[in-house]
Each structure stands twice: as C-alpha cells, then as structure tokens.
Specification:
The chain is mainly α and 151 residues long. The protein has a domain of 78 residues. It is 54% helix and 0% strand. It contains four helices and no strands. The longest helix has 40 residues. The protein is flat, with a radius of gyration of 24 Å. The model has no long low-confidence stretch (mean pLDDT 80).
Length: 151
C-alpha cells in the first residue's frame, strides 16, 4: 500500500521539515459519537474559515458548481416556467458539480504527489541542492531512461 504521508521536498537550501508526529491518545476517536463531535467542534475557530480560498481545489469547485447550478436552474425554469423547480435543480446541480469537481481535483493532486514522491525516491541525486554543490562546470551523468536521441 502506498505511503499516504504528505510529500516532504525541501525547496532550494531550506531544511527538510520533520515528519508529522502520531496523534496523542486523547486526540483519537472514541466509540462515542457525541463526545467525538463535541471535541471536534471545540477545536474549530473562526479563523479556520477565513482562508478557505487558499485550500486546494475549493475555489475551482465552487466556481464550477455556481456556474453549472445557475445554468441548470435557468434551463429548468425556462423549460417548465416554475420557479421552485428551477431553484431545486439549481441547488442540486450546484452541490453535485461542486462535490464532484472537488473530488476529481483532490484525486488528481494525490496522484501528482505520488508521482513526485516516486521521482524523488528514484532520482535523489538530481535534487537542486546537490546540483549547486557540484558547481557550474559539472556535467550530469547520461540518462538511464534510454531517451537520448542519437544523431
């Protein structure tokens, strides 16, 4: 099974951040739903919702959902002439499109991170900090992928 930890690639000369620590016993879920929800709600803070546009995929998913929901609701309203039917379709389309596009985006990002992790493990000698140590006159070794063209 693939490792699900976040990718830990330093940028340039920055140090590698430490691996995340395991959860404490009092932070783990219990069998009591009410207690779990109470602990979760107590951990929420209003500042958690002020930067939602910086979360991955959220802005794109909401924009697609709003556009798709408005279009579907307008088509339904123009087709039936009933406002309630158009509004219901608009809300349903918004939720469906937003959730679907967010799920696809998160899946795409996780596949991209997995590919980056694989490249990092396969080619550790190609990190930019190692290249800086070699100097300007350093010539990289020939590629082992066999994609070099012979002219």
């Amino acid at each position: 099974m693939a490792d699900k930890r976040p990718l830990n690639i330093p940028a340039g000369n920055s140090p590698v951040s430490p691996e995340p620590e395991d959860m404490l016993p009092n932070e783990r879920r219990t069998d009591n739903r009410v207690e779990d929800y109470t602990k979760a709600i107590k951990q929420l803070h209003p500042r958690d919702f002020t930067n939602w546009t910086s979360w991955p995929c959220v802005r794109e998913a909401l924009m697609l959902g709003i556009g798709g929901g408005a279009a579907a609701g307008a088509v339904r309203f123009l087709g039936t002439g009933r406002v309630n039917a158009g509004a219901n379709v608009a809300v349903l389309a918004f939720v469906g499109i937003a959730c679907g596009s967010h799920a696809l985006c998160v899946d795409r990002i996780s596949k991209e991170r997995e590919k980056m992790r694989m490249i990092q493990e396969r080619f550790p000698h190609r990190h930019v900090s190692n290249l800086k140590k070699q100097g300007a006159d350093w010539v990289p070794p020939p590629s082992s992928t066999g994609s070099d063209s012979k002219e």
